[in-house]
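User: I'm curious whether this sequence folds into something compact or stays loose and floppy. Could you predict its structure so I can see for myself?
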Amino acid sequence: MKILLTNDDGYDAEGLQCLYALLSQKHECVVVAPDRGRSCCSQAVTTGEPMSLHAIGTSVWSLSGTPADCVRVALLHLGIRPDLVISGVNHGGNLGVDIIYSGTVAAAREACLMGVPSIAISQYMKREITRDWNVTASRALYVLETVLQKVLPPKTFWNINLPALPPERVEMDFQIRFCEPETQSLDFSFEVVPNAESPGQESAPPDVELIQPNRHMPASVLYKSNYQQRPRSPGTDVDLCFQGDASVSQLGNFPTLF
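Assistant: Here's the prediction. I'll summarize afterward.
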């Protein structure tokens, strides 16, 4: 099988590199991936400026574009004709409504739009659990072997999220659960922080609560959320992945966002 690999973490990200090394043992693999991290860029494409394309070895290219750009350039410019496009393994989960914002999932969706079977793979992470990306790649391959046995309807693709398990747990004893994405959004807010670039704007003392900015007080806002406390309806991808299963969702391309 000929496999095109991409991601939104950059061509040199460990998740992609370890999966590439493992899949290359049995398949012809090619990498076309962003030259740097492009997380949360969704399905943005570059149309108004040139993109730099560099060969890194014989079967790896880096592109100064988005994950969707990488799929387009691979298929239309480099002339790669893959049997399958895999986006990942992403450094972090792509669960629930986050699917909409994910550059990883967008690359798989772009391949789907272009008529190529595709799969997005992400590694849900917890700070207290260390990661071994070689173990992650083995887990990804284990799930892929099951998923690829399923018939994928036209204009759909797979979104896989691997559970956060200790790397020393090398047994493939977790469950593979086919499910729907969580439809409730992750709660988030914005913390107001001083705008250091604004003349005369001084940092507030640590015991002073910053107030909401207005047109007379330049300031910056910083995104804040708690991923672990997000809504998790029973049986959805968030719920299953959080409890230690690999979640697999069949997603549709445009106009279905999920």
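Summary: The longest strand covers residues 84-91. Residues 133-147 form the longest helix (15 residues).
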